[in-house]
Amino acid sequence: MSDRVQGYADAMLSVAAAEGNVDQVSSELFSVARAVDGSDELRTSLNDQRIPASKRQQIVEDLLGGRVSATTVGLVSMVVGAGRAADLSKIADAFVHSAAAEQSREVASVRSAVPLSEDQVQRLAAAIKSSTGKDVDVKVTVDPSVVGGVVTTIGDTVIDGSVRSRLGKLRETL
Amino acid sequence: MTLLNIVAAEGPNGYWWPSDVKEFWWGLIAFSIVFLLMVWKLFPVIIKALGDAQSAAIDDASSSEKAIEAARQDQAALRAELGDAESAGAEIVAEARTNAETIRSEGMVRNEQVVAEMRTRADADIASMKASAQADLQAELSAQTLGAAEAVVTSNLDEATHGSLIEDYISKIGASS
User: Fold this and answer.
1) What is the ipTM of this complex?
2) Measured between alpha carbons, how far is A145 from A139 in angstroms, rounded to an integer?
3) Which of residues 90-149 of A touch B (CB under 8 A)?
């Protein structure tokens, strides 16, 4: 990870820590990053240097206002205004990892076809800790391509329980 | 006498002897002198000329004979060469016929080999295309079967099924400690 990306992540972590909502900002940044990654139009608009920075920041505020915390809106707006929208997802991932590391935890990226309830998230975190011995910070993303079930990624480890992977195995068998 | 008179350019005088004997003797003397002069001066030249002519004629005859002989020898040599050329030509024709026959035979063998190779290649191509078509067909069938299976699975994934899948996943992770 480049020094610039980590620098931004550390700065944003400092701001969130000062605001006292690191966990919330961490989850929201993770979601925002996935949303930007999943939308070519949004990514292109935020990266287009021909659009004035204020306009791009306005796009961020219009999209995120009322859905996420003001801290998150401000941090994302800051990144976009600095012309680093192309690095937004990397900065957000760095933020999430740094925030988890501060609490001696690792990040478990979970992709599911449907949203997980809070209870399911906590039980999943407990199950992962029981299985791997690691304290994890679960970050959930809704991904319809999974079809059904869940895919969890912890560092280099992937635990794939998706219907998609089972259909893939069926394809290989056929 | 008549003839002598005519010669002496006189008229007849009744005698067979010319009336002017002096003219006869002086004429005879002149004639003799002229004759002697001719013999002394002219005749050698004439004889020499005749001799030269004869020698030249003899030389011409000799050279002609030599030329004839040389021509005969050339003719014999040409005849000999012609004979050699004819036999050489016959050899060349025979060799050409042999080479042509060899080329024809080799060409036939080569053609048969080419045809055999083409047949083999065609058989291999047919087998390959058949295998490829079978593989494509199988892949298509698999894809359609899988597509149908995905459609069925997706349509049957309701909220309860999703919940079951998640719970099952959490249980399995917890159990794998």
Assistant:
1) 0.75
2) 17
3) 112-114, 116, 120, 123-124, 126-128, 130-131, 147-149
